[in-house]
Amino acid sequence: MTRMQRRTLWISIAGVLAVTAYAAWAALQILVLNPLAAVPGRTLDEIRAEMSAVGEDLLWEPVFFILGIGVVLAVVVAVVSIRGRADPVIPAMSFLALLMLGTLGYFVASFGPGMSLADTFGIGGADYSPWARPLYAVSALAGAAIAVGGVVTVLRRRAATAPA
Length: 164
What we know:
Blueprint: H1 3-38, H2 44-53, H3 61-83, H4 89-100, H5 102-121, H6 133-161
Helix pairs in contact: 1-3, 1-4, 1-5, 3-4, 3-5, 4-6
């Protein structure tokens, strides 16, 4: 295994772990932290029981399905990058793009549970827990890293092809 292949392997492992951790944190935020913050003074079981009594649900299946799409895409990027012996920049930028788009996945996955909470308790459907902020920060930093990585790549290529 060459040095470049090892770097691609380690970037792929780190990327899959980062995307999986992002999805797990998002699921925890949607299904546990936000409901507890939105309805203070009640346990999660009490919140779920009250929601069920009025015909609303805090379903985990759609949340896991939507967030799982990002994890599946991360695994695909890793497998294609490793098997295709891709330059390490390709999986690095791909994983950063998945993390940047994680905010979109979080929004889509949290929409139903947020509306169910809003309908049950007469509140807004927004985030009540501050623990969504790390998700937004990671996505913003990933976007910034893509921009910086693009500039660095262009500058390196220009320097490599510049006449001596």
